[in-house]
Amino acid sequence: MDIHAGVVVIAIFSVVAAYFSIRAAISVMQSARKLSFYSLRRQHNASAWRLLFFALFLIALAIWLPFYGEPLIYVHFPPSLTPSLTSTVTVTPTITLTPTITLTPTLSSTPLVTDTPTLTSTPFVPVAIEALFAGPVTPNPEAGFSPLQFSTQLDEGRPVAPGTVFELPIGTMYGGFAYNNTLPGVQWSALWYRNGELVDYETKPWDGGTGGIGYTDSSDPIGGWLPGTYEVQIFMGYDWMTIGRFVILGELATSTPTFTATRAPSLTLTP
Q1: I want to staple 227 with a disulfide (CB 3.0 to 4.6 A). Which of 11, 162, 218, 250 is the partner?
Q2: Are residues 92 and 10 in the same domain?
Q3: pTM (2 decimals)?
Q4: How far is the CA of 234 from the CAs of 102, 169, 248, 265, in angstroms?
């Protein structure tokens, strides 16, 4: 059980205990009315009020824990990196992706995709995307994401037969990743670029857990799916977490693109 689950369980127990405390207070008050002696009635009524105040305390605790208690716990007890991940994902400090594709073109023409994609500088969140932020922008410094894996199909949140080279037509493209030590509510963003131009994005407060697997997807980029080199950048707040690239080939493409990812976050996962 992780910290998030423990906080939820404590909150639920607090609400249950508050319910029984209120029932006990009502029962004590009812029994006090039947007593003939004033001193005994007063003692019973005092006990009932104490039970009511205790119930109010438990209800306040149940409300406080998920919103303020959990982030405070993470400050003193940062979680370890133990997301659930199958052996189909291999994470290393440096990964080299060398896709190979053999095509038999029917026409001889200039390839639509260059052999060596141009690598950009350190990714950053555009000002137009910042204006859409609705949550906190300070992530857990221990948060980590694995390199992205791309596929046109998804099975229980995992890309099916991931690759780095795809051919048209394409309906929806998924970018899967593993994550850990994320804080609920922190703003996260996924930016989709084609040949260096932003064509799609999503940004919202993080609604996942503190560790596991997730994905970002794009089904209608600006201009539709076109041949080119695509890059997806993941951010928590303003902090760049991970990046991934893939190539979409057109009907006339004849080259074999090869590129090397230059940054993969250091992340130790326990399958």
Answers
A1: 250
A2: no
A3: 0.49
A4: 31, 25, 20, 12
Measured between alpha carbons, how far apart are the two ends of the chain, in Å?
16
58 touches 21 (CB < 8 A): yes
How many domains, in total, are found in the chain? 2
**9: which 2 tokens?**
């369980």
For the chain, what percent of residues have pLDDT higher than 70? Answer: 76
Question: Is there a single domain that holds both residue 269 and residue 199?
Answer: yes
For 49-59, the pLDDT digits (tens) are: 998 899 899 89
The rounded distance, in Å, linking the Cα atoms of 21 and 50 is 9
Are 95 and 218 part of one and the same domain?
A: yes
CATH of the domain at 111: 2.60.40.2550
Distance CA 207, CA 189 (A): 12
Same-domain pairing of 30 and 68: yes
Place of tokens 């993080």: 206
Number of H helices, E strands in the chain: 4, 11
Range of the domain at 67: 3-76
